C-alpha cells in the first residue's frame, strides 16, 4: 500500500490561496494512489459544507470547486473537527459526501503506523 498523506488545514476562504495550496497537495497525493485525509479545523470546517467551497484564489489557479471535485473523485477524505464545526453551529446534514465529523482520536487512528503530513 502507498504511504498515507495527512493534510491539516486551519483556514477557509478568508485565505483562498492557502486553501488552494493545501488542496493541490491533497489532490496530488490522492490522484497518485496515496490514501489521503484532510483534517479541517477552525474556519476550514466550512469547506466541508455543501456549496461553500467556491471561487478561485488567483489568476491561473485552478478553482476550489474543481480541486474539491478531483479530491473526492480520487477517494480523498475530509475529517472535520466536531468541536470547531459545532461551535460554528453548522448543520452536519450539509456535509459533502467525502466528509465526516471526527477529531484528533480519529485522525491518529487513521494515521496508524505513519503518514506524510502537511500543515496549512
What does this protein look like?
With 120 residues, the chain is of the alpha/beta class. The chain has a single domain, classed as 3-Layer(aba) Sandwich (Hypothetical Protein Ychn, Chain: A), CATH 3.40.1260. The chain contains four helices and five strands, in the order βαβαβαβαβ. The chain has helices at residues 16-31, 64-73, 82-87, 104-111, and strands at 5-9, 36-40, 77-80, 99-101, 116-119. β2 (36-40), α2 and β3 form a beta-alpha-beta unit. α1 packs parallel to α2. The longest helix is centred in the first third of the chain and has 16 residues, at 16-31. It is globular and about 40 Å long.
Q: Strand fraction band?
A: 15-25%
Q: What percentage of residues falls in helices of 4 or more residues?
A: 25-40%
CATH superfamily: DsrEFH-like
- The domain count comes to 1
How many extended strands?
5
**The CATH top-level class label:** Alpha Beta
What is the element layout, followed by pairings?
Blueprint (H helix, E strand, L loop, with lengths): L4 E5 L6 H16 L4 E5 L23 H10 L3 E4 L1 H6 L11 E3 L2 H8 L4 E4 L1
Parallel strand pairs: 1-2, 1-5, 2-3, 3-4
Helix pairs in contact: 1-2
Q: What are the salient characteristics of this protein?
A:
5 strands, 33% helix, 120 residues, Hypothetical Protein Ychn, Chain: A, 4 helices, 18% strand
Produce a short descriptive summary.
The chain has about 120 residues and is an alpha/beta fold.
Amino acid at each position: 500500500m502507498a504511504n498515507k498523506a495527512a493534510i491539516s488545514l486551519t483556514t477557509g476562504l478568508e485565505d483562498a490561496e492557502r486553501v488552494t495550496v493545501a488542496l493541490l497537495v491533497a489532490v496530488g497525493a490522492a490522484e497518485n494512489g496515496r490514501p489521503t485525509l484532510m483534517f479541517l479545523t477552525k474556519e476550514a470546517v466550512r469547506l466541508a459544507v455543501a456549496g461553500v467551497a467556491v471561487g478561485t484564489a488567483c489568476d491561473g489557479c485552478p478553482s476550489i470547486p474543481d480541486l474539491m471535485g478531483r479530491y473526492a473523485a480520487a477517494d480523498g477524505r475530509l475529517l472535520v473537527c466536531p468541536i470547531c464545526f459545532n461551535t460554528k453551529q453548522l448543520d452536519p446534514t450539509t456535509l459533502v459526501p467525502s466528509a465526516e465529523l471526527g477529531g484528533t482520536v480519529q485522525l491518529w487512528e487513521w494515521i496508524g503506523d505513519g503518514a506524510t503530513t502537511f500543515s496549512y
